[in-house]
């Protein structure tokens, strides 16, 4: 996007606001001067929908493993890690928004390319692809866990003479459900119909948190009937095991799960772009250029408030489900808290409803993770095709036609809009802001498509969705997925790239950014250590049994 286009676009946003200012200019002098004195100090207004969009981008299936993360860190370090991650997330988002203002770009990928170059853009593409793919894997694992509990709660299926017992396996159920539900949803090229369910992710997590707190108070090992049923008082060693981490390695295994839960950075540029400040906040109308920057700065202040309020809300929900979920089951906490509730045995109506709401939200969210992964992978394939055609052109004697076709492809690729994550991501949904950019992209990409492009669409979808199914069947538990995503892709997106943004912006002013250095080097160290410990846990079977129902 060049500066002329940007000025025209921002001017279009400003015109109705400036028109309103002009209408107010005819008021009497006293009212006019009073208005001028107050509007400069008035706080920017914003819609609660923006906070909802940020929460939708943050809250997600990662919350299911937070009680398990608290069980590894202990309550004290678990709370500290959650608060620290929330604080770093706010700083990270503010850096990204500042980068949007400086570069006047409103896609995370475009900001990255403008500030740190195309080489890091490739790393970002890889991170986005891994992030979306890993989130899809986690969703399939969660679906498998919920389906397994749901089917086990149907008594007649498990009678001794039932044939269902002999043919049943969790893996077969996952494959069947993927075939009849998840794959058809993944193949959709128009996801507009699913946008009406975009708030399901936030609502389902809020419902789950409320249900988890109630269950812990009534039935928990520490607070509820589980504590009352214990004959002996808890020893100091048992109390310490609740408060302090198991080991340094367990802390490193838990930290990427928490990082993943707060990952929302790739969506904040679009949320920021769609903000519209109140007309009373516009003060400088002298010419086009100041107006554009004035609008960007006002939106930046609005976004800071939205970020602070949204992250505080998400942190509160995470603290509640993490601490109360751990206090509910203590030593038997699994890496998917839904498994601990054993709805197939207890038939608890509240937890059954909470589990079903999460299940529905995860199913609806699944195609929103396949979509950006598919677009990113297709862009990578197109880039490889372009390089190959350029190589053929350099060897040809007469390259006019081939080079002309190459330029056309490059022009079309440069105009293609990249898709922001949902992910979640780690929310199990896409917000309305993100969903609004999806359909135009798909209309441009697949409307009037040839049979070859349709085949390519199906094959890429099968590769991604089918690959996610295979990994979900093989992976030991959902916390492994969150741990690997948090230590790799989330560390790059949440810390390393924002740190590089801060450094590059400071370098333009001839100075250095300490925060940027801390983010870059801290992200590298955290990513390497946490990924290493997660892999160590996999190879040493040092993980929770994700398929065990533990009754009190």
Characterize this entry briefly:
The protein is mainly alpha-helical.
Show the helix and strand layout:
Elements: H1 3-24, H2 29-39, H3 48-58, H4 66-103, H5 108-116, H6 118-152, H7 164-167, H8 170-187, H9 200-219, H10 225-228, H11 236-243, H12 248-261, H13 265-273, H14 288-329, H15 337-340, H16 343-346, H17 349-395, H18 400-414, H19 432-435, H20 438-446, H21 451-474, H22 478-487, H23 489-508, H24 514-539
Low-pLDDT regions: 16-44, 401-448
Order of helices and strands: HHHHHHHHHHHHHHHHHHHHHHHH
Radius of gyration: 25 Å
Question: Which class of secondary structure composition applies to the elements?
Answer: mainly alpha
Principal-axes shape call: globular
